[in-house]
Every structure is written in C-alpha cells, then in structure tokens.
Design a protein that fits this description.
The complex is a heterodimer of chains A (316) and B (444). Chain A is mainly α and 316 residues long. Chain A contains 13 helices and two strands, in the order H-E-E-H-H-H-H-H-H-H-H-H-H-H-H. Chain A is 74% helix and 1% strand. Chain A has a two-stranded antiparallel sheet with strand order 1-2. In chain B, 50% of the residues lie in helices and 14% in strands. A five-stranded mixed β-sheet of chain B has the order 2-1-3-15-6. Chain B has a four-stranded mixed β-sheet with strand order 9-12-8-13. The termini of chain B are far apart. Classes of the chains: A mainly alpha (316), B alpha+beta (444). At the A-B interface, helix 1, helix 10, helix 12 and helix 13 of A face helix 1, helix 4, helix 12, helix 19 and helix 20 of B.
Chain lengths: 316, 444
Amino acid sequence: MSTTQVSQARTERVTAQRVKRRYAHNGAALLFLAPWLVGLLFLTLGPMLVSLYISFTDYSILAAPSWVGLDNYTTMFTSDKLFIQSLKVTFTYVAVSVPIKLIFALLVAMLLNKGIRGLGIYRTVYYIPTLLGGSVAIAMLWRKMLGGDGLLNGVLAMIGIKAPDWVANPKYALYSIVLLSVWQFGSSMIIFLAGLKQIPPEYDEASAVDGAGPLRRFFYITLPILSPVIFFNLVMQLITSFQSFTQAFVISNGSGGPVNSTLMYSLYLYKKGFSFFQMGYASAMAWVLVILIGVFTLLVFRSSKLWVHYEDGGKS
Amino acid sequence: MLNTKKWVTLFCLSLLMFATACSGGSSGPSASSNEGEEGGTSGNIELRMTWWGSQTRHDLTTKVIKLFEEKHPGITIKPEYSGWDGYFDKLTTQVAGSNAPDIIQMDYAFLTDFARRGALLDLTPYAESKELRTEDHDKSMLKAGSIDDKLYAITLGVNAPGVIYDATVFQELGIEEPQESWTWKDFSDVAAKIAAEKGDGFYGSADVSGTTNMFEVFIRQTGKGLFDGGTLTATSGELQQWFDMWGALRENGGATSAEVTASTTNALETRPISLGTAAMDFAWSNQLLTFQQVNKNQDHKLGIQVLPHGVGEKQIGEYLKAGQFLSGYAKTKHPKEVAMFIDFMVNDPEATAILGSERGVPVNASIREKMQPTLPEAEQVIFQFIDVVSKNSSEIDPPYPQGFSEVDTSFKSASEQIAFGQDNTPDVIAQFIEGAKATLASSQ
C-alpha cells in the first residue's frame, strides 16, 4: 500500500520535473523562434489579412478604402479584357517555359553526371545565371542583347540574316523572356544532378547487359527513379513562374508591351495597384493568383500518383 | 494523408513566396528612407528630395542642393532621383507607406490627385509670410499650382510642346526648316521626303501616335479639350484621322516602324533623333537642351518649332504648361525648411543660374529678365520658342481627370496594336473609346 503510494508520488514528481524541463526547453525554442514568429505575424499573416480586406474595397492608396463587396472580383472576370490578356500571357509563359527549362536542366545535369573533369566548375558556371537571373541588371542586359541592334542581331547580320527586334516585337517579346527564364536553369539542374547521383549505376549496367539501348534505359530506369525529383522541380518552377515579374517589367519598361504581349499577371497586378491607384483591385487579383497557384499545385499533386514512383512504394 | 500534409506545406510555401514577391516590389523605396527621422531633434535637419529627369537634370539639381547646404549649414538634403518611368509608381507607394520624400517634384497630370487626397503640403501660409516669395511669379502659373484655392505647387519652369528637328539634316538635304505656320500635311510631306532622300533605316520622325500629350494638341485644334467633365471627348472620326496619318507615315518611312517605336522609351537617350536615325521628334521645349547634349552627332544643330497646325483648325492647339512643380509632402516634419528650399530653388539668383532652363523657362519674371542675356545659344532658342508660343497659343486645359494614367496606357497600347497590324483600326478605336469611357466613369 505504502510502497505504491511512494512510487506514485515519485512518478508524479518525476513527471512534473519532466514537464517543467520540457517547458523550459520550449521557452528557449520559442525565444529562438521569436524573430521568425514576429516576422510571420507582422510581415506575412498581417499584410495578407489586410490585403484580403482591401480586396473587397475600392482603395486608391491616397484616400481611405471604401467597401465594395465582390465588385473587384466580378469586374475581373466579366469586363476586364486586360485581366484575361494577362492570364493568357502568364499561362503561355508557364506552359512554355517550365517544360523547356526542366528538360534543359535535366539534359545538362545528365551531361555533368557523366563524370567529366572539373565538374565543380561547370556546376558553378551553370548555376551563376540562377543567382543573377532575377536581378534587374541582367534583365537590362538581356534587353540590350536581344534588342534591334543588339549583340544577337549583330551576329545574325554577319551571316546575312536580318532579324527582328526580339523584345520590341509582340510576336517574340514573350519568348525572349521565356529564353531568359530557361537560361536560369541552374537550381533545377543542381537538384536533378543530386537526384541522378542517387541512382545506383548497377541498374544501368544490368539493363545494358540485358541489351537495353541508351534511350530505353533513360525512359525505363532513369526517369522513373528520378520522378520524385522531377515532381519537386516541377512544383517549384510552376509556383515561381506564375509569379514572375521582374523580367517582364524590365524588358517592357514596365508597360507589359508591346501591345500587352508581355503583360504578365504580376505585372498587371502591379500596374493596377501602383500606376492606376486601384489597390483594392490589385489585392483581389493577388488572391485570385494565390487560388490559381493553389489549384495548379493541387492538380500536379493529384496527377503525381500516376507518374511519380517512390522506390519504397510511396511509404516514405 | 501524407499527401495532404505535403500539399498544405507547399501551399503555405507558395503563399509565403507570394508575400515575399509582393513585398519585394515595394521594398526599394522604404529601404532608402527613415534615415532623416532623427534629424529634427539634434538641430541637424535632413530632408529628402525626389525628382525625375535626365542625367543633365540630376547633375544640375545636385549642384543646387550643394549650394543650399553651404548656405544653410543646419540642413542637409538627400536626393532621390530617377527617370520618368516608374517615378509616380514609387511615389504613390511612398505616400501610402507615409514615408514620401519631404520635397517632391510634381507633374501637372498628378497634381490634382495628390493634392485632393491630402498628400501635399499646403504652401499658402508660407507664401503669405513671404518665406516662399511668389510676387514675381506669373499669375497663371500660381493658378496652375493651386487646387481649391490652396497653393500646393510652385512651377519650376514653363514649357510648351514642340517638334524638335535636326537642322543639320534639313540643311544637308536642302529642305526648308519647319515654319511656325506649318500644318500636319506639311509635316507629313517633310517627313516622307526626308525618309525618301536618306534611304533605309532613317526615318522622318519618331512615331508619337501613342503619345496622349501630342494627340491632345491635335484634338485641341478642333476647338475642344481632350477631356471634358471627366469623360473623353475625342470622336472615333478624329482618332481615325490621327492614326491614319501616322499609318501612312509608317508606310513611307516618314515615321519609325512599329518595332523601332516599341523599343523607344521616354529616356531621351533612346529617342531615334538622338541615335541619329530620325530627323524629328515630338517633345517639350525644355527637353531641347538634353536632346542636344545626348545627340550621337554632336556637330548637329537641333531646332524646335510649334506643333503642326490642323487643316482648318478652330483654335491653336499649342499651349504653355507649367513643366514640373515642386511640392512639399503633407506629412513632412519640417514644413518650414521645405518652403525655404522651394523658395531657394525658384527665387535665388545663384540657384536659378545653375538650373538655367533645363526644367523650362524660369517662373520668376525678374530672374528671367536677368538671365536672358547671359544664356548660351541653345537656351536662347528655348526662350525664343516660349516667346513665340506665348503669343500664339490657347489656354491650357484643366488637369487630367482621375483615371488618366490608365487611359494614357491604353492609348499607347491602341497605337501599338494598329502599328503592328494586329487589328483593323476602327475596331481598335471603338475598343479604346469604350474602355476609356468606362475607366473614367469608374474613377470619378
């Protein structure tokens, strides 16, 4: 009787100590997390909630917002032609640039995986554009290079081809931005390279012995094993592509021109908010973009069951 | 289950990235601010000043700031300058974030918007107390800077729209320089002739069919303003006439091709006349100076003439405009010093001598008189041009209505659509008018 009481008391004491120790631990953890938590609350969640509220108002920035309900959202889908145009531009951009970029990144990664000498140097060289790519300076440089009398046309002229002004022609302007984005394949490439390194060479050798050609080995061994990595890259690129802004902004001088051919969604959003003083509408557009990205990400995740193979059967 | 979890994580991630992407756009201005906040208490006042313009203007303005700082040791002024593109986007953001610069270069098109919404400092008390002297300023220019009977902006210079031309090219081809009486037809003929004589790759004029300011003059010649009571007054017939004229010019080389136009920005360095690929461009009189400085062919002499007249015009379309204004920020901590600096910039003999007429002909009459004889040749040309215009012009229209910047953008886009032949002109025009009217109606 007494022994059980003693042991019970001891257990309680021990538990209390443990709990105390755990909270002490948590305190330290919270302290270390505090900067991030404050950031999350005040710099992310707070502004997001404010923007949600503003999206239901007519807000000219300089004057106080006034409530308009769903007006911004209905205008967007019923009467704003430029909104539809910006969606078109963005979808085209995403649909063209993401696959090309991923294919290119994979090709380069496979080349680098062949065990060439100076791999580190190549890896760095190919990665540099990704580091620089988002910058305004590079976009300006790009604009100069692809312009009417830029470097590219200079070279083409030498071999007798009279080329258009790539960034000032509505037929090509968007694709010059696509090219700029593809050029920044570095981060996807590094991830692909890491994925490729994980593939045991025995698989490849075994199937080669069995008489499979390089193409067959690529499609039946490399790709399936690499599919989780492809999946990751695809999702990441999809999200960033939907949000791309800087390149279009710089290449079109902030206008989305010529003839709105580079009017990316984020660019139009920016113009609505900061050039046309319609912050309410811009906020509504931002939320539509959030939903759009969410839906597309969800679709990719859903489709992943069909094509992403985990070696352990998906029970990660 | 796991899939949902992953999905949630990624969704959050996407939100996060979006939020950072958004804040990235506006972090530029706020990053460069906040330094002048503590200034007030220590007796050392720091003011921030923002303006747009070319390199020439940046150099001259910084010089004036240095001079001011020498004369007023307690005050420092931090310049924040940029080109025209994006200037007002940035300013709006700064005003929204309550950290706009104390001294702001303002434009006629945005003045009403900013003043009515309480973003600008009311300068009336400082003008009354003579801390900001306005007695020598042209009355019309004081009126231009006043909204609802309060003085919000001081004119930095008087300008007029004109056609800048490369006199050397005209001479070389034996073509008579434009006369004050010239019409749009004369302009088209001259432009076509220059293109024909100079051959491929050289154009008569820059294509300004998408520049609302210049189209406005064309409309004013029919006896009305471009806007009336917050709506667009230009008819589809008038728009058709305007675009057809430029369309014909693009065909015979009289105006730059669609591609060349699209790659031209507002920066004067990129204009075809500066690159030596065109003989004419449409601009503001004060820009002549910079045009001369950035011209690739430094030995070429530039001239300026009034905008071509309408055939059978009802009134002269040409007008005098307060080029840029200086305003104070409503929430500045040092309104008195702001007024002091504005006064210095427009009334101080040394400061105005440095600035010259780069921003336009000075607004202070006594300064103007003193200055005229000492001016270099290029600036004399501008003074003479303003003289010509002040004799033959009609009064400037009221400031543009709210929603103008969106109409301005779609006008440019409409002209590009036509130039690139993406749609037939009547359809584009109908769409433009419909869009402009809707935009203006919803902005009132």
